[in-house]
Amino acid sequence: MLDIDRILKSDRLLRAMTGLNRKAFDELLPSFSQAFETATQSSSNRRQRLPGAGRKANIPTLRDKLFFILLYFKAYPTFDVLGILFDFDKSRANRWVHRLQPILEAALGKEQVLPKRQITSVNEFIASFPGVKRVIIDGIERPIQRPQDSTRQKRTYSGKKKRNTRKQIGASDQDKCILVLTPAEDGKFHDKCLLDASILVENIPKDIPIQGDLGLKGLEEEYDNIEIPHKKPKGGKLTDEQKAQNRELSQERVVVEHAFGGTKRYGVAVNIYRNRKKDFDDHLMLTSAGLWNFYLKAA
Known about the structure:
Elements: H1 4-8, H2 11-18, H3 22-42, H4 62-75, H5 79-86, H6 90-110, H7 122-128, E1 135-143, H8 150-156, E2 157-158, E3 163-172, E4 178-181, E5 185-186, H9 191-198, E6 210-211, E7 226-227, H10 240-263, H11 267-270, H12 280-298
Parallel strand pairs: 1-6, 6-7
Antiparallel strand pairs: 1-3, 2-3, 3-4, 3-5
């Protein structure tokens, strides 16, 4: 079994195994504890025996439970491996992961670092993100196992990635904080279609610049203050001025790549998704983005 005490004494080991340093880990623990107590109380009426009865837990303290779920997010081990690391059966590892993930998500919600799923009005955007100077929008895809159903295969196949994926639209600010992450959809859908369905752009104040890549081409014709790279015309060339403008925009837009890169420090957000629970991949991505935002806040 892992020596958690030893890991917590080393900032390097803790970052390698959880993605958080000791300062951030300690700051997250109180919110995680509160969320765990709330979840325990809400489920107490369904218990058939008193708390504490039965087999003694291998992750007895809330500190251990937080470490357990953060390790799963960071390394994304199979339940067999996770069970060996914590000295219990893979089925128990499965149950603990699905029990603790909503608690971790709730804890990040208490810390107010979870990305919004949708912005319903300009006033909501202003109230939620008062310090935002510009918004950078991009699509984020994560690979999934190839579905056996042929219809599902077609819906999840991404022509861009040449594999089966699930896709989301994300928006970050100038400081690499992820502001919005839309619910996951099948990889077949184009970035522009997902963005139109999210009704995000129309609820961003007009005085805040919105930057995107060529996957959002056409958006500049629908809204003001949209910055999209110039697309080389078929059979033609871009002018030197257009190339310079594209380079300048690319240098500014790289912030969103760094933000998504922070999310992908967690194995659950970048490795091939192999869980079976419906929409669990969406919650893994949302929680990973929340962990990245929390790291920025606590660092």
